[in-house]
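Hey forum,

I'm writing up a methods section and want to include a predicted complex as supplementary material. The small molecule is zinc ion. I've pasted the protein sequence and the SMILES. Can someone with a working setup run it? I'll credit the forum in the acknowledgements.
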Amino acid sequence: MEEQLEQLEQLFNKGDLFEILALKGIALADFRLTDNEIQTLVDLNSVFVATPGPSSRFKLKNVQANGLLTLIHFERNMMDKLNGQEVSAIILHEIWHALNPDEQGIGAEFQADQFANQKGYGRGIIEGLRKGLKYNWIGFDKDECDKRIERLEANLINYNEDDEERDYDLPTDGLEQFELG
Ligand SMILES: [Zn+2]
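Reply by user p_vandermeer:
Happy to help. Structure tokens for the complex are below, copy them as they are.
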């Protein structure tokens, strides 16, 4: 599994999202992605980045061109207002969209939220949506956010690491650098 996490790291270290994760105390293993999920993100040539603003120019390092690039981006000023749980939740929500590109509409939003919920970040989605509404972020429609919050609260999974059945061990040595301790 360590190999898979190293591959995942390659998808995050092209820009400064990596440093943001470190500042928030997030290790990539915390996302609890399966080997298959990581492999699919690799196959999609996914690159995760933080963007300085809605309209901006920035550099990505070491991007391999293979005819397909799946760019998953997060606005830096939004990330600054979110805590580690909320950032992880939003990244997992967007990962679901990347893994299911043909799914659209509110049904897709529910499923993306549920994916984050299953990884232990349902509460993070709820709090992130509340912040989006509070700060009037673009794309945070009140009616839709309320429906998503209501649905998550009814299905909230309280993640217990002791009960966890997972297909790999966490954390791994290579990820210590991301943790603030
Ligand atoms: Zn979504």
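Some notes you might quote in the supplement: DSSP finds eight helices and two strands in the chain. The two ends are 23 Å apart (CA to CA).
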